[in-house]
Amino acid sequence: MSREELIQKLLQEDKEFRYHYEKHQELDKAIDKMERHHPMTHELEMELEKLKKERLYHKDMMEHIISQHTRSHA
Questions:
Q1: Which sign, positive or negative, has the C-alpha torsion 55, 60, 61, 67?
Q2: How far is the C-alpha of 26 from the C-alpha of 50, rounded, in Å?
Q3: 0.85 cut: is pTM over it?
């Protein structure tokens, strides 16, 4: 099973994975919107950093689930 096939399977079958995926997508859109805001204030920069860290957390959680699934089905 390819990585993309596994991701699609997890999106359908794993609620935790789907939660992290959807949060990551949501944060990605918010970050993209904020990055286009000019001028960038200090408060916006701080909020942007916070959102980027949260997005990274959700990406790490997705990778962890993918890794667990790959090991258990190898």
A1: positive
A2: 14
A3: yes
Domain, as residue range, for 38:
3-72
Burial class (CB in 10 A: 0-12, 13-18, 19+), 17: buried
Q: Whole-angstrom Cα distance, residue 24 to residue 21?
A: 5
Q: Give the type of residue at 29.
A: K
The model's pLDDT over 14-57, given as tens digits with 9 standing for 90+, comes to: 999 999 999 999 999 999 999 998 888 999 999 999 999 999 99
b/e map of 49-70 (b: 16 or more CB within 10 Å)?
eebeebbeebbebbeebbeebe
Structure tokens at 53: 């860290």
Number of domains, the chain: 1
